[in-house]
Amino acid sequence: MRKLFILAGLLALTSMVSAQEGDFIKDAAYRTLVHEQYLKRKDLARGRDKELFGVMERTLTAEQTEALEFLYAFMPLSDLANLDGEYFLGQVNASLEARNFFSWGKTIPEDIFRHFVLPYRVNNENPDTARQVFFRELKDRIKGLSMYEAALEVNHWCHEKVTYVPTDERTSAPLATVKSAFGRCGEESVFTVAALRSVSIPARQVYTPRWAHTDDNHAWVEVWVDGKWYYLGACEPEPELNMAWFTGPAKRAMMVNTTVFGQYSGPEEVLTRTSLYTKINQLPIYARTTKLLVIVKDTDGSPIQDANVDFCIYNYAEFYPVATKCTNTKGEASVITGLGDMLVWASKEGKYAFAKVSVGSKDTLVLTLRQPEYAERRIDLDIIPPVARSVEAANPAKAEENNCRLRREDSIRAAYVATFIDSASAAAFAKEKGFSVSDTWSLLHASRGNWKEIVFYLSSLKAEEVKNGFGLLRAISEKDLRDTPASTLLHHLRHAPPKPEELDQESYIRFVVSPRIGRELITLWRCFIQQSFSKKQVEEFRKNPPGVADWINSHVKSDESNYYRVPLSPKGAIQLGLADDYSKKVLFVAICRTFGIPAKINQADGKPAYLHGGKWEEIAFDKEVASPSEKSKVTLYYDGVEGIEKPSYYTHFTLARLENGVFKTLDYENDPTATSFPCQLTVDAGYYMLVTGNRQSDGSVLCRLQFFMLPAGGSKDVHIAIRNRQKEADVLGHLKTDAAFSNFLGSDTLKLSSSRNDKGLILLLIEPDKEPTKHLMEEIQALQEPFSRWQGTLLFVVAKGKIPAGFSLGTYRKLPVGAVIGYDSNAEVASAVRDALGFSPTNLPVVIACRKNGEIIMYSEGYRIGTGEQLLKTLRLLK
To answer: Domains in the chain: how many in total?
Structure first.
């Protein structure tokens, strides 16, 4: 009897321990998987064991321990290098506090919570403590709401803080985005997901990596509410969920995906599954889809296993892989995608094959891999995107109520922006310090909400530091001005080595003093690097800069588990003893600059280089660098096409080099070398593909692929031949010109008839605060000169009820000569457009080009990058 009692007690104790161990992860098999994966990452990160895992030695609950293990088990390499255990424990505690605070916290399934609430990271931002800050600000505002209402309210709060403005590729942390009061779509959605997760509402950022019908991409938010996923536009509140300006474009998408933190088993199609993350396909939520099957074979007809299959969309003048699959034992790979054209590229061990496929009309594609022939050839492709589909309009009453809220929220944000330093205060500060007024104002204006840090930095400059101090600020990016602390800037200024005599001032600032290297966050690394090497090592590095790369290869092992591609800080890479290839390049440049060796990462090919004897010498890790004798020169000539005065890289053409069966696009964006023609580029010898494209008004593309070989030490002339298709314009309707609108310059009322002249009229009905209109207005201003030469009338009319708080004519400073801005106060212009077309457009902006007799020959509505260029192509037809 006593034995039975003891056995029963042991069973009860075991049951209690098991339940306690499963407080956060109740699935025993998954809990074991997480623990084993945690131990692997712990061993991998032993170079930072104390900084990362010291918190695990504290007295923690089973819930805290399991949640921490989950984060450690799946975090990317950058977070093991750049963050510490205190940060992760703070994230765990904050997420558990929010779950207990809100009524809906208990209703969230365990797997949804751990993958879409607990993770501190959304995408490739630099993590911060936004979760704690946002929870404090939002908790009382939404406490009494339903989960659905709370999701909407959080987005309204986000709109109070942030609006859309395009920025560079480095993704700001959520708190930095709030400080700036603006961000691109990727930053808005990171910020909004962080806000939703802070109040225990599961959320994820989703991307269409590239649109099929226009040259751009977009990010937005999906939110889990009461058992169902919905979508919303980040910082763009609508009356309901599943409502956004991009609903129409999303119906034409070929891929919508997200990267899920950890090993995830949801209902969505898995695009990529690894031990650390799961990439899933959410396209069926938005568009009509089908499965495309690709079968890869050898020349003898045998199926090829483990071949890479890239499913590519034409966008930015390249074929971009929106999904990559690996073939199975049958040589098969498949993807669920939209009903448009794709280029499918299969490769393995240097062999490749490709073909265009019209998804929907064909569901199976067979590709036979062959060795490259390196032949000169040309292939013309007509790329057709999925067709546009109708979108249900919002309830007018709810839409108007929502618009009133948006205007109030614009005012709240504008009031915050008004606290930024103004030009008068900046001038007074500059005069007091003896600085250039224009230089000081330019920097402080760009710094936005970070202006106090920049003022502190400038105020701290000693007389002998002023020249280099201003130079450093001009050498970093505007985003750096918006989110870098003064202490970090001063660190890099004061610990930079003296200028070598042979180096000019500009090169010294850009390639030695500047802490901006690539797409990494600027951090403190100079002192740490200085302390990491002996005087003898430093002297050896200065005599032989490739020795820096040798040291990195010996002391920092390659590890490609950095799946979000956030660069490791130079300090973190050295401490961890691990880094991905890109972070090694950043580390190389950081070490060189610390010891006075001018260094950079080349934009075009991504190779690090150092300046030696007045020439830039390239460095490569784990692979051979092409010697000068292996370089080639290619001269690009432009064969003019009507409507495209000068082709732009990543708009009309790109150049790619074949590497192991795949063409890798070179990056000449914003490179002055590739902006005037003929232009000569120095590149590695090899087999190249020139892609050109001419986007048409319906979203289709006239594409051309030109393949050619560049021999080592040789040169070649290549013509950028952009395909064109001339056709007479169809008359889409007749615009009556008696519609009236208000003049922004006064109380006068104008009519469309008074705006039109013999050259014709281009009418743009706009919504200034929304992203589609912002893109359009940027395009028109960038094309100021050709539109001014046209001498017709460009009429911008703000749609009724769409004037944001603080809007003025000064919002658009570079409009073409003669442009007119008005307000459709009585919706007469919108009515005239509806009557002319025979239907009422549902998406702004609306763009119409009409002849002097009112014949409409071009019409566009909603989000479409490249509309400005389409209008230029139309000008000849307006006569």
So the answer is: 5
